[in-house]
Amino acid sequence: MKKLLLILVSLFLTFEIALADQLEDGLAAYRDGDYAIALKLLRPLAKQGNARAQYHLSIMYDQGQGVTQDHKEALKWYQLAGKQGNKEAQVYLKQETEPQVQVGGYGPTNKAPSYPLLARRMGLQGKVVLNVEVLANGSCGQINVAQSSGHAALDNNALSAVSTWHFVPATKDGKAINKWHQVPIIFSLKDNSNHEPQ
Q1: How many CB atoms lie within 10 A of CB 24?
Q2: Residue range 87-92: mean pLDDT, rounded
């Protein structure tokens, strides 16, 4: 009886090691961009209930990596992974249920920040990320710098421009609400671009 128990434990451990190897090989293939192999290795594990495999499979469906893009299928795998405690899937699901804010665009009412002449001459570049309170009426409420470009002239120019913008406000239960949103602004001499729509 003891011998049989040892054989069963040995078989179980061998099976667990093989599954762990399959998961690591699948994740390595995913990182290398070999989505066909990743899909072949991860899908069976995801169906068996492996949360990491489920999470990566959800990304593949969400992004159309090695499979036809299918947001419904992606959501199914995100939910399965999230229920098993996969933190990345839980963060994704939380973001999906929170009200979203859309930037109203860079049209006549939302002009991109101008590149300060002195900053351009000095070769100053950088990315500014602004925290913007988007009010229910679409206008900008409070605004501050979440991440500085490292240059006050660029930060101040971004603050000044974005404070005049209008946004499509977030909604909850069909009603517009106030919500904070991050707006990145890029000042780049290389491509003469100084904004990054979100």
Answers
A1: 12
A2: 82
DSSP code of residue 100: -
Whole-angstrom distance, CA of residue 118 vs CA of residue 42? 54
2 Cβ neighbours under 8 A, 6+ residues apart: none
What percent of the chain lies above the pLDDT cut of 90? Answer: 28
> What pLDDT score does 191 carry?
57
131-187: per-residue pLDDT in tens? 999 998 888 999 999 999 999 999 999 999 999 998 888 887 778 888 888 888 888
As a 3-state breakdown, the chain gives helix, strand, coil percent values, each rounded to 5, of: 50, 20, 30
Spatial separation of the C-alpha atoms in residues 180 and 144, rounded to whole Å: 11
Q: What is the rounded distance in angstroms from the CA atom of residue 74 to the CA atom of residue 134?
A: 30
pTM above 0.90, yes or no: no
Is pLDDT above 80 for 101?
no
What single-letter amino acid sits at 75?
Answer: L
Contact 100, 170 (CB under 8 A): yes
Please list the alpha-helical segments (H only) found in the chain. Answer: 2-31, 35-47, 51-63, 71-83, 87-97, 117-121, 152-162
Place of tokens 């309170």: 133
Question: Are the beta carbons of 169 and 176 closer than 8 angstroms?
Answer: yes
What does the alpha-carbon distance between residue 46 and residue 120 come to, in Å, rounded to a whole number?
52
